[in-house]
Amino acid sequence: MRKILGVRCFLDLVFRHLTARAELWRPSRAKGGRGLKLVWQTLVVWEIWKKVGIKTYMAPGSSKEKKSDDGQATKENFINLCNPHLEKMKEDILYHFALGTGTHDFPTLFGDVKFVCVGGSPSRMKAFIAYIAEELGLGSPGCDYPNICAGTDRYAMYKVGPVLSVSHGMGIPSISIMLHELIKLLYHAKCSDITIIRIGTSGGIGLEPGSVVITRQSVDATFKPQLEQVVLGKTVIRSTNLDEQLAQELMQCSKEIGQFNTVIGNTMCTLDFYEGQGRLDGAICLYDEEEKLQYLKNAYESGVRNIEMESSVFAAMCNLSGVKAAVVCVTLLNRLEGDQISSPHDVLVEYQQRPQKLVGYFIKKSLGKA
Ligand code: URA
């Protein structure tokens, strides 16, 4: 399956390359040249391919062989950039990060990054970098971590050693913009073997508050493991699967920590916090409690254990870029018991530290420091 999808991705690139070249071939058109014929033949093949092709596709990460210290050949996975136009640009401005390839040396600044943790709030991502610095023995007491994106207030970014911590705001549009620029940043920096983990909060279904859910698949509000996106007026469907092995490794880490309940389950990603998640306490609600509970029970029966608002596009974009990815969210409440997040502030603060602890331990272990 991956092979077929890889071929399709390749043909996509060939198609875009040839149509870009068509401009250059224009003189031969008047003479009915063979160049134009070839372009049109390619277009026809492409249209047929699109009609019969599979609608969801995942790109394999592009990889290169390298020799390890003991002389063994291992594969190095680079970012699979699904955009041929970028190669033709002299400079790439990552506007929402206030960074650019013309003004910043990406390989020097970010080339050693191996782990990227993303989460909604800037202050939580700053707290995470201080925590991970301490855990990896890279911090010093009272050390302040500068915001790499200080030139903008859209997103915040912090780095310590091989770990990058980036905020993404709330909802699919916000995390999507951040991920476009993050993936390009990692590509321009020539990073390899990257793991990206979203650490966040969510509403649980049938779990005690404070439980941590490691996402198996992100599903939409109809429980399908897909993201529907409109591109050039057409709906495209993208896969929202996540790395199964990474999820299992994180689960093992949680067992080793042994401090809080952790499960692997599906995560429902919605477009909204209120009606989209079946709440009764928004400004608008045109259903009753019975209908709400039936919906949440159906979600539970389909394998959903928590609800949040970013995982689908996160999974889809990481899939297309060939990056290993996971979603680890704590549940702030059990939605079968209510809608309002009413636990005391200190309890919520402790809950929010759980995904950080788990992912911090995973990074430590991966670096042989646990
Ligand atoms: N985030 C969500 O999207 N939903 C919740 O219920 C809690 C956090």
UniProtKB/TrEMBL annotation:
What does the record list as GO biological process? nucleotide catabolic process; UMP salvage; uridine catabolic process
The EC number(s) given in the record are 2.4.2.3
Q: Does the keyword Glycosyltransferase apply?
A: yes
Name the positions where phosphate binds: R154, R198, I199, G200, T201
InterPro entries given in the database record:
Nucleoside_phosphorylase_CS (IPR018016), Nucleoside_phosphorylase_d (IPR000845), Nucleoside_phosphorylase_sf (IPR035994), Uridine_phosphorylase_euk (IPR010059)
Q: Which residues form the Nucleoside phosphorylase domain?
A: 114-363
Q: Which superkingdom is the protein from?
A: Eukaryota
Catalytic reaction annotation: uridine + phosphate = alpha-D-ribose 1-phosphate + uracil
Does Glycosyltransferase appear among the keywords? Answer: yes
In UniProt terms, what function does this protein have? Catalyzes the reversible phosphorylytic cleavage of uridine to uracil and ribose-1-phosphate which can then be utilized as carbon and energy sources or in the rescue of pyrimidine bases for nucleotide synthesis. Shows broad substrate specificity and can also accept deoxyuridine and other analogous compounds.
From the Swiss-Prot or TrEMBL record, give the protein name: Uridine phosphorylase
